Amino acid sequence: MSLPARVLRAIIADDLTGAADAIGSFGASRSSAIVLGADSPWPDSEIVAIDTGSRYLSASEAALLVSAAVQRARAENRIVFKKMDSLLRGNVGAELVGAMTALTGKDRGLAIVAPAFPATNRVTLGGVIHVGGQPAASAPFHGNIRDALTFAGMTCQSITSHSATIASLAGEMRRAHAAGRDSVIVDAVDDFDLEQIARAAEQLVFPTLLTGSGGLAAHLFPSRGTENVRPEIMSPASRVLVVVGSYSDLARSQVDELIRLGCLHVERPLTPGAALSAAATILASNADVVFTPERLAPVNKKNAQEVASALASTVEVVAGHFDALVLTGGETARAVLDTLGIRTMYVVGELEPGIVLSRSVEHLPHLVTKAGAFGDSGSLARTVRSLKNHTKDLREQ
């Protein structure tokens, strides 16, 4: 009896941690890989998540990169999922327009937009993103998804998934498409809602594009674990390097918890010679290390890339002395991996929602990525403990 053909998928994301968020839940059950850069080779994995690096590009540049990635996915017969930021950061509307144009061609399709990520306390109500129960007023477009999409010229209709059946949701999607809409914004407050949205989309016969955060991405398949992927057996890490590029209050509290755990805290000033000085301090110790920008330096969000590059230059010197690297924040993670020459990461699984464990064939250390805004004050400390005690397949935890 012949085996059923694999269903290949491509997740298109605008930054590294977003790509990881969206694919992380599949690492323990399906062959999954994260690819850095729109032009990098794609491995023969069932699911690939591509970081186009387009979040901070112009809208037109971002749309072109995403369109090219979607065309490439179609050429490989991959079903496309468009990852969008759960706080509407980046070129959300422009990238969705680029993806839809490449996906549908002359046909008229429907983008099904549901950026809720309940596991990280981000839900959508009335087409507005809420964080911790409150509207995300400080987010771009004040968290209003319709405004983000209409800004790029899309036509939208809002619907709710709460208490809806799969059949009724699919019916509302069909009516929106028949009315000439090119997108529907679907409210969701829990994972059941997201599961219903994903299954309703499967009922449609016209071109569709599921669009959302890691919350919706986790429901791309009706059930997980159907592919025979060899379990990853992880040895405990003897030494962990945590790199935190963010100055946020949450990041500071996470660093404080790591220091309480016994990690050596090393700071990286933006001054000549600081890279080697920080590296010397790290190499002189055998402890786990949390590596950050200079904490008392004035915060300047405009030099975020400079900070990320500075951290990466030191990590390049010391990475080989650690069994695991934990990278917090998309810019920081991408800068470190680019410096280390890593273009592909093979996903092992999630340690927590949004905290993704991967490996690279080119380098020894295991890699953990986390978006800067995810988690609580203890997230990084728990991650380090998990890595140091990690001796078995993630699926058994």
UniProtKB/TrEMBL annotation:
Domain (Four-carbon acid sugar kinase N-terminal) ranges: 10-220
Keyword Nucleotide-binding (UniProt): yes
Single GO term (MF): ATP binding
One Pfam short name: SBD_N
Gene3D superfamilies given in the database record: Four-carbon acid sugar kinase, nucleotide binding domain, Putative sugar-binding, N-terminal domain
Source domain of life: Bacteria
Keyword list, A-Z: ATP-binding, Carbohydrate metabolism, Kinase, Nucleotide-binding, Transferase
Family note: Belongs to the four-carbon acid sugar kinase family.
Name under which the protein is recorded: Four-carbon acid sugar kinase family protein
